[in-house]
Amino acid sequence: MSILTDVKNLGQQIWLDNLSRSLVQSGDLARMLEEGVCGVTSNPAIFQKAFAADSLYAEDVAALKTQNLTAKQRYETLAVADVRAACDVCLKEYEADSGRGGFVSLEVSPELAHDAAGTVVEARRLFREIGRPNAMIKIPATDAGLAALETLVSDGLNINLTLLFSRRQTVRAYEAYVRGIRARLARGEAVGGIRVVASFFISRIDNALDGNLPAHLRGKTAVALAKAAYADWQDFFGSTEFADLARQGANRVRLLWASTGVKNPAYPPTLYVDSLIGEDTVNTVPDATLQAFIAGGTARAELAENTDGALAVLEEVAGLGIDVEALAERLQQDGLAQFDDAFAKLLALLS
């Protein structure tokens, strides 16, 4: 039994934060699923790297450039095909786990980060074009993204809400999800097949704060925030209010830990995997972190442990004059800018 299976038995799914044509066609993705990986996430930076480095795209890129298409249309042609193929590989996991795992995420254009209506239109279109039940459409957790989340949940789409960095942002996401579920139920439509994950970014928090913290707090804020966010999740989805929706078929949003590769080489490479294992959660990891965890990680449900200690860390950080909610807003904007940049480079490859 692999360590990934051990993690799954503890209630957490490990997803791969990578996607390329070679990954699918080589059979590597299928082998990872056999070892215990349960899904796939992608983003513009991942596709930009894949299109630039994977020779399997060359023939199709050349052919697409002869067609009267925009660079974005060429990108979507390639990305939708990749996600569709990955969904087919992951379908067995999706079916075996009653629709809880086996998902593959595709992000809407970063250009739509502050356009709720545009996000809804594009998400609907991409979900329809992929045409697979285990597709997830990724949208950012901006104000516009939360408005779109409510509509898209009401539509019945699977959503990966990304670029969450704080407890407040994440609870707002849960509230938008519930509004979408209530709207769908009010129309007499089923909600049991809708799956949503809330992608809470980890390593970027420590990377932003550590330089301003005393040594004993460095590398601890992100995990402390995650533990506090998990306690918030337990409170929200364990409430009487949500129990009524659950009786009508609603699923809990799952916290997904993202950006879990360490950015500080002084930290153990599996820090943000070992520390964040908890029931009904997901951790999406890049290849190097996945291999490090398989080689030397620890499968132990630490996420729900020592929440008081985590809150004490956050109180000490706040006592230093650091506003983690303000930091979260800045990190979200930084993340949007990084995706914008990656998307521009991706489109340049296809122009």
Strand content: 5-15%
Radius of gyration: 20 Å
Question: Helices and strands: which structural class?
Answer: alpha/beta
The CATH class, by name, is: Alpha Beta
CATH topology: TIM Barrel
Which bin fits the share of residues in helices?
55-70%
Q: What number of domains? A: 1
CATH superfamily: Aldolase class I
Mean pLDDT: 97
Shape: globular
Figure out the total of helices: 16
- Uncertain stretches: none
Topology:
Elements (H helix, E strand, L loop, with lengths): L2 H7 L2 E6 L3 H5 L2 H8 L1 E5 L2 H10 L4 H8 L5 H26 L7 E4 L8 H15 L4 E6 L2 H13 L3 E6 L2 H20 L9 E6 L1 H7 L11 H17 L2 H8 L6 E5 L12 H4 L6 E5 L1 H10 L10 H13 L4 H26 L2
Parallel strand pairs: 1-2, 1-8, 3-4, 4-5, 5-6, 6-7, 7-8
Helix pairs in contact: 4-16, 6-16, 7-8, 8-9, 9-11, 11-15
What is this entry, summarized?
The protein has about 350 residues and is α/β, with parallel strands linked by helices. The protein has helices spanning about 5-10, 20-25, 30-35, 45-55, 60-65, 70-95, 115-130, 145-155, 165-185, 205-210, 220-235, 240-245, 270-275, 285-295, 305-320, 325-350; strands at about 10-15, 35-40, 105, 135-140, 160-165, 195-200, 255-260, 280-285. The protein has an 8-stranded parallel β-sheet with strand order 2-1-8-7-6-5-4-3.
